[in-house]
Amino acid sequence: MNSRRDYQNNRAALFDSIETLSPAKESCFILPREIHEEVGIHNHALDRMNHDMDTSRRVLSGTVDRFKRVNTLHICSLGFYLCV
To answer: Is the pTM of the predicted complex or chain greater than 0.90?
Structure first.
């Protein structure tokens, strides 16, 4: 009889410990969800930054191309004036 009582006491103690772990168990499920949401926010911000960088790169590329053209025109006109 004593072993049966010990078994029941151990079982009750086990369920009590599981119930005390319940809030910790919930936080184990909540934390990954929060991390996933945070990662999504950061990925969205990085995508916007990538788009802005691409736009800036296109603008600067066009400026450099214009500068090269103007430089070439100045060199050609300078050569023309020196020849004449």
So the answer is: no
C-alpha angle with apex 14: 13 to 15, nearest 5 degrees? 95
Q: How far apart are CA 76 and CA 60, in angstroms?
A: 24
What gap in Å lies between CA 44 and CA 50, rounded to an integer?
10
**Residue 11: exposure state from Cβ atoms within 10 A (0-12, 13-18, ≥19):** exposed
What total of structural domains would you count in the chain?
Answer: 1
Range of the domain at 42: 1-84
Angstrom CA distances, 75 to 68, 71, 72, 80, 81, stand at: 11, 6, 5, 9, 10
> How confident is the model over 30-61, as pLDDT tens digits?
778 888 999 999 999 999 999 999 988 888 88
